[in-house]
Design brief:
It is a single chain. By secondary structure, this protein is α/β, with parallel strands linked by helices. The chain has 2 domains: 194 residues, NAD(P)-binding Rossmann-like Domain (Rossmann fold), CATH 3.40.50; 121 residues, N-(1-d-carboxylethyl)-l-norvaline Dehydrogenase, domain 2. A 9-stranded mixed beta sheet has the order 4-3-9-8-7-6-1-2-5. α4 links the parallel β7 and β8. α6 packs across α12. The radius of gyration is 19 Å and the shape is globular. The mean pLDDT is 97. This is 2-dehydropantoate 2-reductase. Keywords: NADP, Oxidoreductase, Pantothenate biosynthesis. InterPro entries: 6-PGluconate_DH-like_C_sf, 6PGD_dom2, KPA_reductase, KPR-Related, KPR_N, NAD(P)-bd_dom_sf. One of its GO terms (molecular function) is 2-dehydropantoate 2-reductase activity.
Length: 327
C-alpha cells in the first residue's frame, strides 16, 4: 500500500509538523484550512522552524474538502471540540481504501473498537453522543497515534518544533497490518520516530494519565507545570485524580505500573512548561475538557470506579471554561 496523496485536516502546530515531514518525503500534500491559515499556506507555503533553520514546503490548501477529492491518507490533527465539524465535512476525502490517522489528545471515539474487555464496542456519550463521528469516520478506517513532540505556532502556517519527534502508531484492534507497516515506513522515511504499539489504547491512556490533570489545572490557575508540581496541596490533588484513573484503566485492561509520584517526576523535568490547554485559554480557543476529563468520569461510571476527585476537577474546569466562553 502506498500513501501518495495525503491530507492534513487541522494545520495547527502538530498537523503542520507532521505535514512538513511528509511533504519533504515526497507526498503530494493537501491541507484543509480556513481564514488566516488558508491565506498563509497559499501565500507562503507550510513552514517549519527548528533550532536555527526553517524549511518551506508547497502545499495545496483549500477551505472545502470536496475541492481536494479522495486521498490515500487523511491525518486528523484538530483539538477534540473541532472534531464534530470535521466529521460533517470529511466525506469527500474518503475513498474505499483511505486510511485515517488520528493525532489528537484524550480518549478517541474509536477507543473501544476491538478493545476494552466487556466494554468492547461501547460508544462514549461524552465523545460522540449521537454516534455521528463514528458514522462519518468508521473505526475500521483508523490508525491511532500518540504524539510525543512539543510544537507551537510562530504564526499561521508556521510551526516551531521545540523537542520530541515521535509518533507511536497502532491499529485499534491491536496487532499489525499491511497498511500500518506502510505508514510506519513512510513516517520513518519522513524523519519521524514511528514505533508500533501492539495496543495503541494503552499508549493513549498512559499519555492521558499525565495530562488529564496538569492541563485543566493550568487552565484554571494560569500556572506552568513547574508551579503545579511545587504546590503540595495541588500535587496531592493530582495524585488523587490519577489514582482514580489508574483503577479505571486496570478494569478495562490497561495496567499502569508507575505510581503518580513517578509521573510527577517526569513532569518536573519539563520545567516551566505551558500546557496546550493553558495556551488555548490564553488564545480564547475552546478547551478539550470532554476528551481529557469528562470521558474519564464516564469510564468511571461504566466500570464502577468512584471518581470524586475527577468530578471536582471537571466541575471546576468546566465552570471556568463556560464563564470565559470556551466550552
Amino acid at each position: 500500500m502506498e500513501y501518495r496523496n495525503v491530507c492534513i485536516y487541522g494545520a495547527g502546530a502538530i498537523g503542520g509538523w507532521i505535514g512538513t515531514g511528509l511533504a519533504a518525503a515526497g507526498c503530494e500534500l493537501n491541507v484543509v484550512a480556513r481564514g488566516a491559515t488558508l491565506n498563509a499556506l497559499r501565500r507562503d507555503g507550510l513552514r517549519l522552524s527548528h533550532l536555527d533553520s526553517t524549511t518551506t514546503h508547497a502545499v495545496r490548501a483549500e477551505s472545502e474538502p470536496a475541492r481536494l477529492g479522495v486521498q490515500d491518507l487523511v491525518i486528523i490533527a484538530v483539538k477534540a471540540p473541532a472534531l464534530p465539524e470535521v466529521a460533517r465535512q470529511i466525506a469527500p476525502l474518503l475513498g474505499a481504501h483511505t486510511v485515517v490517522l488520528t493525532a489528537m489528545n484524550g480518549v478517541p471515539w474509536w477507543f473501544f473498537h476491538g478493545f476494552g474487555e466487556r466494554w468492547q464496542g461501547t460508544q462514549l456519550r461524552t465523545i460522540d453522543p449521537e454516534g455521528a463521528i463514528a458514522r462519518a469516520i468508521p473505526a475500521d478506517r483508523v490508525i491511532g497515534s500518540v504524539v510525543h513532540a512539543s510544537c507551537t505556532l510562530d504564526g499561521p502556517g508556521h510551526v516551531r518544533r521545540h523537542a520530541g519527534n515521535k509518533l507511536i502508531l497502532g491499529e485499534p484492534v491491536g496487532g499489525d497490518s499491511a497498511r500500518l507497516t506502510a505508514l510506519t515506513a513512510l513516517l520513518t522515511r519522513a524523519g519521524f520516530e514511528a514505533p508500533v504499539s501492539p495496543q495503541i489504547q494503552k499508549d493513549v491512556w498512559y499519555k492521558l494519565w499525565g495530562n488529564m490533570t496538569v492541563n485543566p489545572i493550568s487552565a484554571l490557575t494560569g500556572a506552568t507545570t513547574d508551579r503545579i508540581m511545587e504546590d503540595d496541596l495541588v500535587r496531592g490533588f493530582t495524585t488523587a485524580v490519577m489514582l482514580e484513573a489508574k483503577e479505571i484503566g486496570a478494569r478495562i485492561g490497561i495496567s499502569v505500573a508507575e505510581s503518580p509520584q513517578d509521573r510527577h517526576a517526569i513532569t518536573r523535568r519539563l520545567g516551566a512548561f505551558k500546557t496546550s490547554m493553558l495556551q488555548d485559554v490564553e488564545a480564547g480557543r475552546p478547551v478539550e475538557l470532554d476528551a481529557l476529563v469528562a470521558a474519564v468520569r464516564e469510564l468511571g461510571q461504566l466500570t464502577g470506579v468512584p471518581t470524586p476527585s475527577t468530578d471536582a476537577l471537571l466541575g471546576l474546569a468546566r465552570l471556568h471554561a463556560r464563564t470565559h466562553g470556551l466550552y
